[in-house]
Specification:
Length: 247
């Protein structure tokens, strides 16, 4: 799978924190960056001083956050020349664990997540069609191709990265942060790797259509296609959820 994300998406992840001085907030932001694929496996993190400046916190706070990340197995620290803190992408969880996660969510919560995501992703797609650069479209095309071969949790990550790229192409830092926050909280739920056979091909076709609409500058079509894409995902998850609860 393609590595790295657009500058806008990464900038949103490393934007100054609203609650200054909280190691937990820095930890959460970096966990999101790793699990969402904004930081690639084995990628070196900025220095403690650079992270502190980006987040608007002290180096002590950053140091505490890195300790927490090491304890979670998401970062490793290497000493000596060429050393530093390096990303360790988490191993893919089993399908059984994803199913258990879906089982514990109520149907009303699932619908609520979908409604929120529709508002954010639909608006992002419309603005991306109006504001995206040729480079943005190229990244969307690459993100679309990731869906073709991705399976399991890699397919889930590819879905999330595609929508992050759409938000970044909207050229709205606040909207991109909203996308990042929503994905951090519940985006993994919406794109759980539970799709039946053939769904990946459908997702690939839907992503291509959304990207084409953005490339053509058709904001209303881009919004419509994105909303339909998300509604289909919600319907599939609702069906699986009900099957899991069936006696």
């Amino acid at each position: 799978m393609r590595k790295g994300m657009s500058h806008s998406a990464r900038s949103a992840m490393f934007a100054p924190l609203d609650q200054i001085g909280r190691a937990e907030a820095v930890t959460a932001r970096l966990v999101d960056a790793i699990t969402l694929g904004l930081l690639a496996d084995s990628e070196q993190l900025p220095s403690e001083a650079e992270l502190a400046a980006q987040f608007g916190v002290s180096t002590v706070t950053v140091r505490e956050a890195l300790v927490a990340l090491r304890q979670q197995g998401l970062v490793e620290t290497r000493r000596g020349r060429g050393g530093g803190s390096f990303v360790k992408t988490p191993a893919n969880p089993s399908t059984a664990s994803w199913r258990e996660r879906l089982r514990t969510v109520s149907l009303s919560d699932l619908r609520d997540v979908g409604d929120h995501y529709l508002a954010i992703a639909g608006a992002a797609a419309k603005l991306a069609a109006e504001r995206s650069s040729p480079e943005d479209v190229e990244r969307l095309e690459l993100a679309t191709e990731d869906i073709r071969t991705a399976t399991g949790t890699e397919a889930s990550r590819a879905e999330r990265q595609f929508h992050l790229e759409v938000a970044a192409a909207a050229q709205s830092p606040r909207l991109t942060r909203e996308e990042v926050q929503l994905q951090s909280e519940r985006g993994g739920l919406l794109w759980l790797p539970l799709e039946p056979h053939g769904t990946r091909e459908n997702a690939y076709a839907e992503h291509r259509a959304i990207t084409a609409a953005i490339a053509q500058g058709d904001g209303e079509l881009a919004r419509k296609l994105t909303e339909e894409h998300i509604l289909d995902a919600i319907d599939r998850l609702a069906d699986v959820h009900l099957d899991l609860l069936a006696p």
